[in-house]
Specification:
This is DUF481 domain-containing protein. The protein is mainly β. Helix content is 2%, strand content 66%. It has two domains: 104 residues, no CATH class; 214 residues, monomeric porin ompg (Porin), CATH 2.40.160.40. The radius of gyration is 24 Å and the shape is elongated.
């Protein structure tokens, strides 16, 4: 283990990583998401801040927290379990991870809040020729623009299926936008909108927009668990039953966790109860696994599901599909 050779150096500052390793050295500073330390065994080291769990400093540093306009002289009293930030007046705050710290420096800097842009795109193609000619195409992805107090996410997917001389043709797409505003490490409010269209089902489209109050149990580079509850307005258009609208109580769940170093499991779903239509539940979302081939390339297996306790005429309550694809992440 890396920790076995790093802990004996006798340096005053200590950095704990998400994988359990510990680095001893002198913290030079944190800028643009990179933590730099001086060590006696390897000289200057650079560590991605996303992989840092906690930090302990022997001397105060000029520390800028996410959302602040300027740095303050602070001390970090971390351990492998949490991070304690101590202001000059002795005020202490405890956090389960190192995410609130935006920048650190040994001398007073001029600092700005940092935004992070990222996302992924996944592609699945399936074609057949011979007695029948069939083509299935699916693309999906998401983009996010975040700082640690404001999070924006745009999520989308497109499915196209064709059978040139057959009966069926199908176009399916959905798009979702979420904005979350955090007030503490754990509590946030969320505004969410989503629309789904299906060219061949009785349920042609479903759109909803709502507001939620959320609680983040944990969010690090290796795992995350977020819940939110609230109210959402749902508009639905059926081919046979016409248009319907309902106010619903909603619960959203997002969870991801690395099962191994390069294999991640995730679930992203929402459960809704239509208040104006008794016993009508909707549960939709997806879950799956991603295998990280390189820093940017992944292999994916995803199951999308859509459950409606009272579906339209001659339709089943659960609609599900499994997709295999290749993803590009940035």
């Amino acid at each position: 283990m890396l920790s076995s050779m790093l802990t004996g150096a006798g340096w005053a500052d200590t950095v704990w990583l998400e994988n359990g390793d510990m680095i001893s050295g002198e913290v030079i500073g944190l800028d643009a998401g990179i933590l730099k330390l001086n060590t006696v065994y390897a000289g200057e080291l650079s560590v991605n801040w996303r992989h840092v769990r906690s930090v302990k400093t022997d001397n105060p540093l000029w520390i800028n927290l996410i959302g602040e306009n300027q740095a303050q002289l602070r001390e970090l009293r971390g351990s492998s379990d949490n991070l304690v930030i101590v202001d000059e007046d002795g005020y202490e705050r405890k956090f389960s991870a190192a995410w609130p710290v935006a920048s650190m420096a040994q001398s007073e800097p001029t600092l700005e809040d940092k935004w992070e842009f990222g996302g992924n795109v996944n592609v699945n193609l399936n074609s057949k020729s011979g007695n029948d000619i069939e083509s299935r195409y699916r693309m999906n992805g998401q983009m996010h623009l975040n700082d640690q107090w404001n999070k924006n996410r745009l999520k989308w997917s497109v499915d196209v299926e064709r059978k040139d001389e057959g009966v069926w043709k199908k176009d399916v797409w959905d798009v979702q936008y979420d904005y979350s505003r955090y007030f503490t490490e754990h509590w946030f409010v969320n505004v969410s909108s989503k629309e789904r269209y299906h060219s061949r089902e009785n349920l042609r489209s479903r759109a909803n927009i709502g507001g939620f109050v959320g609680y983040r149990v944990r969010e690090t580079s290796t795992e995350a668990l977020l819940n939110s509850v609230g109210l959402t307005q749902i508009w639905e258009t059926y081919e046979r039953e016409g248009k319907k609208q309902n106010l619903a109580i909603g619960w959203k769940l997002f969870h991801r966790r690395y099962l191994m170093s390069d294999l991640e499991y995730y679930v992203d779903s929402g459960l809704y109860y239509r208040i104006q239509s008794q016993n009508q539940w909707i549960w939709d979302g997806e879950h799956g696994v991603r295998y990280k081939v390189t820093d940017n390339l992944s292999l994916n297996v995803t199951q999308k599901f859509d459950f409606d306790s009272l579906p339209g005429e001659n339709e089943k309550t659960l609609d599900s599909q499994v997709k295999f694809g290749v993803g590009y992440n940035w």
